[in-house]
Fold this sequence. Notes:
The protein contains nine helices and 15 strands. The chain has helices at 6-36, 78-81, 167-175, 188-197, 215-224, 248-262, 278-288, 326-335, 348-351; strands at residues 39-51, 54-65, 85-86, 91-96, 99-104, 110-116, 122-129, 136-142, 149-153, 204-211, 231-235, 267-273, 293-299, 311-315, 318-323. A hairpin with a 2-residue loop joins β14 (311-315) and β15 (318-323).
Amino acid sequence: MPDPSAAPASWSLRVLALAYRTKTRLLRVLSERARARGWTTAALGYPGYAAGSRARVRGRLLLAPAGTDPGARSDVPGFRRLLTLEQPHGEIDVTVGGVRVRARADEAGLVDVVVPALLPPGRTVALLHPEGRPPTPAPLHVAAPDATAGVVCDIDDTVWITGIRHPLRAAWRTFAGNGSTRRPVAGMAALLTRLAEERPHAPVVYVSNGPWNLAGPITHFLERHGFPAGALLLTDWGISPRAWFRSGRAHKRGALERLAADLPGVRWVLVGDDGEHDPAIYRDFARSHPDRVAAIALRTVAPLGTQPPEAEERVGAVPVVRAGDGRALAGLLGRAGVLAARRAPAGSAARA
């Protein structure tokens, strides 16, 4: 007897396949017209990370008018950043520390390639070489070879205020706003800076379900508001051959697993908020990798006009703290022994 649930599922898959083919054909037609007008393949470089003798370089291939730099657009509304002509499955040369490799973009034009290169700790750049254009820099944050501590941080409602629990408000901030109209979460820049400065060249990685199209505004926002620089692990929005929407949970879980593999000696402080799925994702990671998590810090997203509660708990031996802003979280992390107490300025005792 046929399964009655199979028909709706089969219908949905057929509609999905049709929608994906339609999107692909539209992109092909628009790309052909753009090339006829003289547009050429350009590259965007995204902040990546390196450790040991491996550098993970991120970027994107897209079409742009000849002589223009698609990465130079600043402070434009978010919806305009989504209006790009990505170049799926294009190829490009990538250079890191004198090592040159050939990389191939995925179906969304995204480049994600590991380059074997021994780099000193600190900041450096990889270069993407689009044909007929100057090389495009892709920042690299190189962790110390003996790094034992690092920070993973969410962005929406953790770094900047999005109001993800209010979909219309969040959509307005994402699509109509830009980096200069966003407000930072109070105390979070200071908290992340303290966590990053506990160890020299500790890796800092910002993981978000936001689209790669917002990488530029996010990077500028972090710089403008004093957050520590770090790699970005964002995602791609839009229809795929397998789903209408990309799974945010799967993206974050996959990002954490990849970081655990790429930086095997690092114990992470996982920073996020309780507005969506961070608590469950971080707890699951701590249960499966208890020796890789130093602490979990969650910003409590409370309704306006209410005082966010503070809480301390544990997942096994991993401390979990909750509070309404970065300053309160720093206090709880200090009480848990994860964050060192601030040292008083020289001479302060004598003046007291």
